[in-house]
Q: What sequence folds into this?
């Protein structure tokens, strides 16, 4: 029991938690932007796969790491444009389109991977982002080390939260975005195109999801393999709800979930095989459901979420 | 400064069709600076459609709109806003989880600004509020505001954008009398500043009170134009309805046996419903029993009890002298209770389903509409067409989604659905709320016919005039209790008012 608690005091545990949280933070912010504008983006899992491959492949083909991130974002935005076109002006079911995008994007990625690397059996590695300790801050015990000796992409993830929060609550465009998710008629009555706002939000959101995927290949596993997103996208959907559609709370949720995940890995090692390891694998998900029940029951969700808006209809 | 053109707005030949329905048929008119035009018409006459074209929500099939002598780009609210047209929609276009300031500032600053200028917005809102008597807290969320306050936000939204022409769509439909007075005062201030106003309404006395000129729309056409001064309410009413409306004649009741009896019924008052406290009620065949009262005093609870959606915590309920144990909505229907629900949008109909589906929704399981578990669509469609014909419902087709219908037509359809089964007991809850003169007369006539036929009718209404006109006996509900019944003309309006306020015997 003591050992189980000792884990919480290990620096390596917190470093791992922050690292595991980073891709979730990107993708959660992406989903949050989409949903705040009134569009549920279930393409997230597939778009993360696209980003993971696009970023990795850019670097593998000789590109710069940051070029990889940019390519991933652009690829994500393209799928966002597809999703947005189908769900916003055409008003198709957001569930069906989202699942379709996930299936399509995932298969297309695997297909492209096979086309590009037909002969390969073990996925090739790239030189990933390296940890960039921030002088001074990174020498603070535990917390400082956990937060400030990470790769630049993790810092970008945290910066994204601040930028998204500022954008949503402090800028005119954020105001329009939130209003589009609350009451699209209010947006139109003020002379703004609901379609424009929503498609823009889905594109930017999808770009962030793709960067979240790219984090996995460029800052964690260093190579691309099938099934690597492994449900992280779905977790992000839950994190948005957990965070009551607020960036700060969603960030907290991402870190909490990542901590559960990092914790169960260490607990597995402690148990020495007495308990089947699947039980530990299950733990973060079971705890997230519990957390959702406790936290998100009374959340005020965007009123127009999942409701298509068609101009000139009554 | 004099304007080159005395007219700030000119509509020429506006025509708009929704499928086979012609909502606006070649409508032309002009609006002068500082003028208040009233657009008068029944529900479904095309008033709102016309204004939605002017504001750019819809694109007209034919015709043009000119503002200050310049042609307005069709189908673009931004163009209308930029040209100085502001619209206060009947169903407010506000984001409820956002603040007053955010709702007003939405779309007024360049989207690429890195920071929303709240300070400037707050200053401007403050100035406009005090100039026009529109007191509001800019930081309150819209969800916490009353309906009257929300309307003020809508007006401020228009003024904030320097609107010169203000369109108000049925602005008083949701207001209390004192809020209406405040609105009229604000409108006077606006006109004094040189704004022009289009006031959409179907209430004659309001039109007479605020407008300079009245345009009457009927069935999508401009039926007439009158200067308010020198015209009369009856003249306008006749123009609006197309014929003279006679108020219903109510004969002596042919009172029969007791059809519905509630004995010492109380409810637990769980949830949001008002608790009923030891209520006893008797409905007799051939009589209209009117239930007056200020909304929220338990009328909704009583209606839910009779409709079967709520169970009493104590007391007995009987139909034609027989106790009913399983008082569910289905049991209520099958025992001959016809219901006209209070909220036709939320409870009375399913907006996205067709007229046909809605008219059979209470009885789709009966042999008339289903055979061996399959729906008989031909019978259903025939039934829908029958109601459309007999109850004079204006709708494009039985396949049309019911939410496309205007309130009056929707209510006629609900009325037809309820009355077609020849119910022995009719529960009419606010049957004429929000309806125009013609539709009100229609509903009243049908209810009186049902009374002649020998049905027992419970009329729940906040409109005291309606209760007084139709009811053979009147009850007043206050704080979940019922007053003793009084016969027609037995209690004065003042006595009824005291009962409604909770003074007098019921309290």
A:
């Amino acid at each position: 029991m003591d050992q189980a608690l000792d884990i919480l005091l290990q620096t390596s545990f917190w470093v791992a938690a922050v690292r595991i949280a980073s891709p979730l933070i990107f993708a959660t912010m992406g989903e949050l932007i989409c949903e705040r504008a009134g569009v549920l983006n279930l393409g997230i899992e597939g778009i993360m796969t696209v980003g993971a491959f696009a970023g990795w492949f850019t670097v593998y083909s000789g590109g710069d790491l940051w070029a990889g991130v940019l390519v991933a974002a652009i690829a994500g935005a393209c799928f966002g444009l597809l999703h947005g076109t189908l769900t916003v002006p055409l008003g198709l079911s957001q569930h069906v389109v989202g699942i379709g995008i996930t299936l399509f994007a995932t298969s297309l990625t695997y297909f492209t991977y096979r086309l590009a690397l037909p002969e390969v059996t073990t996925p090739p590695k790239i030189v990933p982002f390296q940890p960039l300790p921030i002088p001074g801050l990174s020498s603070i015990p535990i917390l400082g080390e956990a937060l400030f000796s990470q790769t630049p992409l993790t810092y970008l993830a945290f910066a994204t939260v601040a930028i998204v929060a500022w954008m949503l609550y402090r800028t005119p465009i954020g105001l329009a975005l939130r209003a589009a998710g609350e009451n699209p008629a209010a947006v139109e009555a003020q002379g703004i195109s609901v379609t424009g706002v929503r498609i823009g939000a889905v594109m930017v959101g999808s770009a962030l999801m793709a960067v979240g995927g790219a984090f996995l290949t460029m800052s964690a596993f260093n190579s691309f393999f099938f099934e690597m997103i492994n449900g992280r996208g779905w977790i992000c959907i839950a994190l948005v709800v957990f965070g009551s559609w607020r960036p700060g709370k969603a960030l907290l949720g991402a870190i909490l979930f990542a901590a559960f995940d990092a914790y169960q890995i260490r607990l597995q090692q402690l148990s020495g095989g007495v308990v089947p390891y699947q039980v530990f694998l299950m733990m973060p998900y079971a705890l997230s459901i519990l957390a959702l029940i406790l936290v998100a029951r009374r959340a005020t969700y965007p009123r127009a979420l999942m409701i298509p808006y068609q101009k000139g209809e009554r | 400064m004099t304007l080159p053109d005395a007219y700030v707005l000119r509509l020429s030949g506006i025509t708009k069709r929704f499928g086979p329905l012609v909502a606006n048929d070649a409508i032309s008119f002009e609006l002068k600076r500082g003028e208040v035009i009233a657009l008068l018409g029944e529900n479904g006459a095309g008033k709102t459609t016309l204004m939605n074209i002017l504001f750019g929500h819809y694109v007209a099939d034919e015709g043009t709109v000119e503002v200050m002598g310049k042609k307005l780009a069709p189908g673009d609210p931004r163009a209308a806003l930029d040209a100085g047209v502001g619209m206060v929609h009947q169903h407010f276009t506000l984001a409820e989880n956002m603040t007053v300031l955010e709702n007003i500032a939405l779309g007024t600053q360049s989207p690429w600004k890195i920071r929303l200028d709240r300070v400037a917005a707050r200053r401007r809102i403050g100035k406009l509020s005090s100039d026009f008597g529109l007191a509001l807290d800019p930081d309150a969320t819209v969800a916490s505001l009353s309906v009257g306050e929300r309307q003020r936000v809508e007006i401020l939204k228009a003024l904030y954008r320097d609107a010169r022409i203000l369109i108000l769509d049925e602005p008083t439909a949701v207001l209390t009398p004192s809020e209406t007075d405040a609105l009229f005062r604000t409108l006077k201030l606006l006109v004094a500043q040189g704004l022009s106003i289009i006031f959409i309404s179907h209430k004659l006395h309001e039109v007479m009170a605020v407008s300079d000129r009245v345009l009457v729309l009927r069935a999508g056409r401009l039926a007439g134009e009158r200067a308010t001064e020198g015209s009369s309410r009856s003249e306008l009413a006749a123009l609006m309805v197309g014929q003279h409306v006679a108020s219903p004649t109510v004969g002596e009741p042919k009172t029969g046996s007791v059809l519905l009896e509630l004995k010492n019924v109380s409810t637990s008052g769980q949830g949001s419903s008002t608790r009923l406290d030891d209520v006893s009620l008797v409905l007799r065949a051939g009589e209209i029993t009117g239930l007056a009262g200020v909304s929220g005093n338990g009328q909704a609870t009583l209606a839910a009890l009779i409709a079967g959606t709520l169970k009493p915590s104590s007391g007995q309920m009987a139909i034609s002298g027989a106790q009913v144990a399983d008082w569910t909505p289905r049991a209520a229907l099958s025992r001959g209770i016809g219901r006209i629900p209070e909220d036709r949008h939320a409870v009375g109909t399913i907006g996205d389903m067709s007229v046909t589906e809605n008219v059979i929704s209470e009885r789709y399981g009966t042999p008339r509409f289903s055979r061996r578990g399959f729906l008989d669509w031909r019978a259903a469609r025939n039934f829908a067409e029958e109601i459309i014909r007999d109850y004079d419902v204006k709708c494009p087709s039985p396949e049309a989604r019911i939410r496309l219908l205007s309130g009056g037509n929707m209510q006629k359809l609900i009325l037809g659905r309820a009355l077609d089964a020849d119910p022995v007991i009719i529960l009419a809850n606010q049957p004429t709320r929000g309806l125009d003169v013609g539709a009100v007369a229609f509903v009243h006539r049908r209810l009186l016919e049902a009374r002649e036929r020998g049905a027992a009718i419970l009329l729940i209404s906040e409109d005291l005039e309606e209760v007084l006109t139709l009811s053979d006996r009147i009850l007043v509900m206050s704080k979940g209790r019922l007053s003793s019944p009084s016969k027609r003309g037995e209690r004065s309006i003042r006595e009824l008012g005291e009962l409604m306020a909770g003074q007098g015997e019921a309290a």
Observations:
- The domain at 2-118+150-295 of chain A is CATH 1.10.3470 (ABC transporter involved in vitamin B12 uptake, BtuC).
- Residues 11-36 of chain A form the longest helix (26 residues).
- Chain A has 13 helices and no strands.
